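User: Here's a structure from my thesis project, written as structure tokens. My advisor, Dr. K., wants to see whether a designed sequence matches the one we expressed. Can you design one independently, without my sequence as a hint?
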């Protein structure tokens, strides 16, 4: 009886060891699958980078979505929101339409209500009272080497949500709200 328990324990331990050794190799394999959706980011405020497969076919990967939520947290407060997966799909398709493999440079992802309120008071405009950033439905980005106007045009052609062009601040706002442009 003890011998069977010991064998099961050792077999389980061996499988865990193998899985932990293979996991780093699995990430590139996931990205190579024809139905995978992959994104890459650099956060301009935190200096963090993330390259991740977030969906396979129609299935979103819960662990990847959680990592994206943390990556796109409110960089002022550290609060983590829930980002709309459709926003990731929009970003994926925009980058695909641009035939670009450069990472998105993130200026702002999720914003908690307190941060949004403070920015609204101190930034002299440009921050909506009911910003979709607070709902995890908006992101402010640019892509190194891609003109902002091209990023804006491709996003507008998708007709998926709002597109704001902030050339002076060097970013484009994308969201999954109603279709509108500014």
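Assistant: Designed independently from the structure alone:
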């Amino acid at each position: 009886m003890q011998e069977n328990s010991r064998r099961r324990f050792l077999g389980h331990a061996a499988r865990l060891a193998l899985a932990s050794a293979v996991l780093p190799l699995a990430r590139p394999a996931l990205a190579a699958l024809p139905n995978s959706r992959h994104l890459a980011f650099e956060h301009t405020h935190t200096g963090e980078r993330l390259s991740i497969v977030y969906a396979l076919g129609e299935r979103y990967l819960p662990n990847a979505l959680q990592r994206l939520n943390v990556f796109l947290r409110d960089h002022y407060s550290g609060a983590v929101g829930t980002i709309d997966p459709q926003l990731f799909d929009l970003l994926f398709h925009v980058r695909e339409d641009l035939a670009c493999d450069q990472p998105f440079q993130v200026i702002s992802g999720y914003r908690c209500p307190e941060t949004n309120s403070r920015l609204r008071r101190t930034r002299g405009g440009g921050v909506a009272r009911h910003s979709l950033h607070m709902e995890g439905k908006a992101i402010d980005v640019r892509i190194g080497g891609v003109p902002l106007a091209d990023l804006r045009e491709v996003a507008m052609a998708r007709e998926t949500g709002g597109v704001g062009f902030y050339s002076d601040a060097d970013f484009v706002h994308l969201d999954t709200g109603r279709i509108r442009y500014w």
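When you compare it with your expressed construct, this may help: The first strand starts at residue 36 and ends at 43.
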